[in-house]
Amino acid sequence: MSAAAQVPALELRAAQVKFGGVAAVNDVSLRIPRAGGISAIIGPNGAGKTTVFNVLTGIIRPSAGQIVVDGRDMTGRRPDEIFRAGIARTFQGVRLFAHLSVRDNVQLAARSAPRHPGGAAVWFDRQGEAKRRTEWALTEVGLPQSLWSAMPDRLTLLERRLAEIARAITVAPIVLLLDEPAAGLNTAEKDRLCALLTALTVSTGCRIVVIEHDMKLVMAIAQHIAVMNFGCLLAEGTPAEVRGNEAVIEAYLGTRSHHA
Amino acid sequence: MGAGSLEALIIIQLIYLIAALGHYLPLSMNQLDVGIAGYFAIGAYISAFLTRDHEVAFALALIAGSVAAGAGALIVDGLATRVRLTGFAYAIFSLSFAESLRIVLNNVEAVGSSGGLVGIPAHTTLTLVAAIAVAVLIGFWWLDRTRLGHLRTAIADDEFVVPIFGVPLTATKLMIFALGGALGGLAGGLYSHYVLFIRPDDFGFALLISLQLPMVFGGLDRFYGAVAGLLLLGFIPEFVRELAQYRLIVMAAATLLVLILRPSGLITHRTIAWVKSRLRGAQAEPTR
Known about the structure:
- By secondary structure, chain A is of the alpha/beta class.
- Helices cover 39% and strands 23% of the residues of chain A.
- Chain A has a six-stranded mixed beta sheet, with helices on both faces. Chain A has a four-stranded antiparallel beta sheet with strand order 2-1-4-5, with helices on one face.
- The radius of gyration of chain B is 20 Å and the shape is globular.
- Chain A binds chain B through residues 57, 59, 78-80, 83-84, 88-89, 91, 95, 97-100, 104, 107-109, 111-114, 151, 167, 171, and chain B through 147, 150-151, 153-154, 156-158, 160-161, 163-169, 221, 269, 273.
């Protein structure tokens, strides 16, 4: 493997976030590898998972620590710069623009694409390029064409989630951060989402990071799991390693011994 | 109503239309910049000063006034955005800019201080104002179809999310603010070269209200809401002249009625969606 392939796609180094006196994120380091595949961040409510996403996407400036995207230090950069460096995300509650059609929502992100592989020819046809990327992304997540010109409030929850994922993948990100993508979905919808996420890691080559509460789902799709509790990183490793970790069993998966 | 006074009415209403659309731009992004009277005054004074005292060609003076007003909006909104003003604080800040400008103009000898600027050469004609108004309307129609127009809607919907999709938020907002200010300045230049005599107090709170009320009537969701509001407010009173002094009461009642029945204005996103679904339904029915 070459040296370039060893550089993590996204790295958080000893990040700390303080709200008032409370440390929402305390000395958390994460290495998100480059190749396709799925990582998960799990942990109880208020563990600091979404705050980690907010730090990674430049919404919250950490009080200490570094964000490194593809080997470049992006600490303190604006969210739009981090997006163009290749980090895209979705939100816990779906946040599509309510008064733009599904297509316009996606196209808005597609036009922010940084470098085009097509070179000068593409530069002169940014509108057309954005349109192609938009249509590719909408097809990729499996949204039927009949919904493309609909307003977001006409869509089901799953369809809105898919539209939000389409909006995030238009620029071919190197890391895709999904904040509770399966929340509120039924079993059949969750299965469809899991199949899509696995397929996306192959077709786009991006690394997906999910925050998720559904343990069964996480264990089924993730190759790497990080466990957070009270703003700290409790453990990380493969699903099997995490399942067997004493600290994790104690803090998160259950405290049967205490109840007995 | 004589032909002359009808022409005067139309010219003034078209000038207000251009200014109202300039005022509409920041408001439609959910940014409460209410400094439009100030931008209007900058355009009116600078262009009049240039044509009257320096014999600058009218077109150039008009452009200079417009650019200066756009720059004024950039300064006001740049400062407001930098310290992250929102809501009322934003409104008060931009309003105090316009009011301070009025007080300063009242004390500047070079532009006639409180006595006003007299002897402005007449250049504004109905044809010119109508042509510019049509161009501005086409511009707005076109803007709604561009990326900048979509970004404007997105900023109004969820400002927080916009930068996360690669959009430099502050730069985008400032571009729209500058456009709004420049339109205000353009309207101001047309105004001063039509009325030929301007005083600082022409650009006070009353001007803001007459540009703000159309938004209340028409709504902020579409630019033609502002246009509809202006048409209603500008022309209806002229056609109920017989009511004489009771006209103002009628207008106040109409305003209250709109605020009670349609607090978001006459033309809203929902109205548009409803009309579209009705149109689609009417087309779909026969094929079934």
